[in-house]
Design goal:
This protein has 12 helices and 10 strands. The model has no long low-confidence stretch (mean pLDDT 94).
């Protein structure tokens, strides 16, 4: 597949992907979007917030959306390789099993053991390596074993699939003032932002949220090109080694700003959410952490959407969070 540019992302493309995702045999869910005021979550800002519960999505995160669109556009029974800290790998393995394709996930050594065991239980091979050589191992699989690389965030079909989340938001709230989305490689943020802006919501401000220790998109915005860094964060799903090129182009075009949250703020957010009955992993809590810590400017009296992007956290992991 050639290098797609941001211009390739059109409203027609996103509508088509939305339909593919909606009718996917993988059973992607139109997740609930609920008013914050109807939960027991604390709020010290007077604004009208809706929470999009993507932590209730099939396979536990938004990743299945992009995967559903990727697999629908690839030959059945292929042999695919990808790199992932867990959530994309889980959706990739789920899809591989469904479509009868062979797969391999190259994971960073830092990824939780429970993730790699789960992925292997779905019939996909896992190889855990240092984060710095993830791409080298992927390239070896492509060159030596003839596998096809499916990118976990820098891929046109994937981003178009993730855009379905933005479309669902607009079905409930046709013109939100502010939308807050977590950002790792930038696939979800790019897709949601493109869906909202291309649907005509010119005034909507879209913010990406990254951990301080894994702020590749934030740095890319400063350097005006996609950059990498040695990432370290409790939110492993938001800590790929570099920002995606296509996500960067789309975020430059459609995203207001990238804001940063600390690991401590993320930890506190996981605990607060859990205390109100929401099981959300660190990576899925970043947008919430940004809102409760007043990182998003000018939200007083505004209609705000907060995306809780994933809920893959085990009981063992939850035990390490402040109660």
């Amino acid at each position: 597949m050639g290098e797609a540019s941001a211009d390739a992302v059109t409203l027609d493309l996103l509508k088509e992907a939305r339909e593919t995702v909606r009718t996917s045999p993988l059973g992607v869910i139109n997740t609930p979007m609920i008013p914050w005021s109807q939960t027991t979550l604390p709020l010290n800002i007077s604004c009208n917030i809706h929470i999009k519960l993507e932590n209730m999505q099939r396979t536990g995160s938004f990743k299945i959306r992009g995967v559903a669109n990727q697999f629908a556009r690839r030959p059945k029974g292929g042999h695919f390789v990808t790199m992932s800290a867990g959530n994309y790998g889980k959706s990739f393995a789920y899809a591989s099993k469904h479509y009868g394709s062979k797969g391999k996930v190259v994971m960073p050594e830092t990824a939780p053991m429970s993730r790699s065991i789960l992925i292997q239980s779905l019939g996909v091979d896992v190889e855990q390596v240092p984060t710095s050589i993830l791409m080298n191992v992927v390239n070896r699989c492509v060159q030596e074993d003839g596998m096809t690389f499916l990118h976990s965030y820098d891929d046109l079909d994937l981003i178009a699939g993730h855009a379905s989340l933005g479309m669902e938001v607009l079905e409930v709230n046709s013109e939100p003032d502010v939308v807050v989305v977590c950002c790792g490689g930038g696939g979800l943020l790019a897709g949601v932002a493109a869906a909202i802006k291309l649907s005509g919501c010119d005034k909507t401000r879209i913010y990406g949220v990254e951990p301080e220790g894994a702020c590749t998109m934030y740095k890319s915005f400063i350097e005006k090109k996609p950059v990498g860094m040695d990432t370290k964060s409790i939110a492993s799903g938001l800590a790929p080694p570099f920002a995606g090129r296509l996500p960067y182009e789309l975020c430059q075009r459609y995203v207001e700003a990238i804001v940063l949250v600390s690991d401590e703020e993320i930890k506190a957010a996981v605990s607060t959410l859990y205390g109100s009955g929401f099981v959300v992993e660190p990576s899925g809590s970043a947008a919430f952490a940004a809102i409760v810590n007043s990182k998003i400017p000018e939200v007083e009296g505004k209609n705000v959407v907060c995306i809780l992007s994933g809920g893959n956290i085990g009981k063992d992991e939850l035990a390490n969070f402040p109660q």
